[in-house]
Amino acid sequence: MQVNIILFGQLTEIAGNAVSVDNVADTDSLVRILHKRYPALADTKYVIAVNKQVVNRNIPLNNNSTVALLPPFSGG
Amino acid sequence: MSNSNLYERYQRQIILSEFGEEGQQKLLKAKVLVIGAGGLGCPVLQYLTAAGIGTIGIVDDDVVALNNLHRQVLYSVNDIGLSKAERAAQILKQLNPEIKIIPYNERLGNQNALMLLDEFHIIIDGTDNFSTRYMINDASVLLNKPLVYGAISQFEGQVSVFNFQQSENDEAANYRDIFPNPPKEDEVLNCAEAGVLGVLPGIIGTMMANETIKLITGIGEPLANQLLTYNALNNQVYQLNLSARKETRSLIPKDEAAFLQMDYAWLCASSVSQSEIDADTFNSLMEKGNVDVIDVREPHEMPLATEFSNIKIPLAQLTDNAGMIKSDTVITFCQTGKRSLQAAKILSGIFGDKKKVYSLRGGIVEWKKQKQAV
Q: From the CA of A21, how many Å to the nearest CA of chain B?
């Protein structure tokens, strides 16, 4: 099973525009894998959206789930 | 304004069947507060003025600078050094003399925010820092006002409409439903560090004006409970769904008194590296360690600060003795907090981003008072 991740803002400088992760059960595990792969992500603030729904707790992931990582923007 | 004049100015939007004269009347009765007359504020203000919003308030305490002009398209070189709020109001009045435009050349803070926001029907956040953004969000929730939000970084922008209940089944979401707590100082870059393409706030600000007009006239589907992101490099638009969370409410001050007590500047550790902190924050920073506390008073001044270790460098000798400061965090204090704020500014100038410099608000007098109260 594969989960596709798209990144926004400054996160793209850390991990590029898109990455994929295999065999990941839920969002907490995904975050652990990503932080191991891209340590700079752990020091950056972002929110997770699964299939275009913003989530603030651990939820299960399915095959072909799309996960978006969005940082907050302050500029005006 | 006479009806025939009104019809002529707005004729091209009045002939839209969804809009009509009724839509125009709604705009003329609306009162909108635009906070920040910068990159986002300029296009928002231009389009809302042109569209005929009856009353527009403009809050900004900044002045026009040369490096603003690539994106803040209301201003010209002759405006450099002048108040943005006042210049914007003058320029916009020439565009549409029939509406009321009120400049507020002041900084939005806890003390004036609720009073000011309460005068308007819709709030627009075009500010450039997290502390003001969280404050505006919380104030809008407290006052139950729709908040049109926009933010930019480099080539990307975000737009949303907060505190607006689209249907009876949906509870209105706000900014804290996406980002419950403000980022810390080093977790994100600000505009000055990150840079921004000049045309981007033009696009995002215009979308914000569009959302505002939709909210007022009731046409279309505003971005309530949704966050739209736009990428100027590849034209990709990504729209996320938001839900109101139960936990969010506990993060927002429950009433006016609690709102006045919130220290938004500290919550966000704003990117300005000198800022004032209160006694509680002072104590928690001391607990963390790696802090140098500097007493900038003259040697004879009382009361002595014996409760915590500190280095005594009177304000006048600060620049020459800055080398004595070794820790990454520096807190200055004096009797009442005025000289220490000056000292913090001087030290921020010397250390730049290398150290975090804070000034103890209310000085040692207030700190001792707090300690006794505990």
A: 21
